[in-house]
Amino acid sequence: DGGITQSPKYLFRKEGQNVTLSCEQNLNHDAMYWYRQDPGQGLRLIYYSQIVNDFQKGDIAEGYSVSREKKESFPLTVTSAQKNPTAFYLCASSPHSGRMNNEQFFGPGTRLTVL
Amino acid sequence: GDSVTQMEGPVTLSEEAFLTINCTYTATGYPSLFWYVQYPGEGLQLLLKATKADDKGSNKGFEATYRKETTSFHLEKGSVQVSDSAVYFCALHAGDTGNQFYFGTGTSLTVIP
Question: How high is the pLDDT of residue B2?
Fold first, then answer.
């Protein structure tokens, strides 16, 4: 089945450790996105990528890093510099870059808890 | 810049009641508009969309009409069910602004039997 997968579903890390969240899509979509969602709040954009080997900062990029070496993969690293990393992380993709009539498809999310 | 404002929740309704969740937008271009639904612990699922003025999106009994004159895209359903309990997000996409999508803060709906 075509779709977006995120792994793991639940992730625990100790304070001060870096951790990488996986996002893979087999939809052949050009653009991919990472959002953070805190309880009772909306989505905040961390990073997005419109094409392989290129990505842009979103509204809350500090303490995060990404790479886009392959079209289907867009991993997110939460570094120790992120002061409050406990949150629900959502990955999304959309078919085209910079064109109208786009829509986003979301993965199931990863819940990160810092102990 | 582009933005979406949607009705704050939480909203609690009895089964078979009428639902309206308000959404208004600000955009410099001609955006596409969306409603997404999120069930607990899951990602967002597209519920419906409209790509131009006066379009009506519909799915699973939900409807929303793209109103350019009032810059609105209100979500409605004539008779809600317990299974509709979820968080609903209004969103827009304008392809001429870097391919970003802009989301409202979400409205939590609880339907009681």
Answer: 85
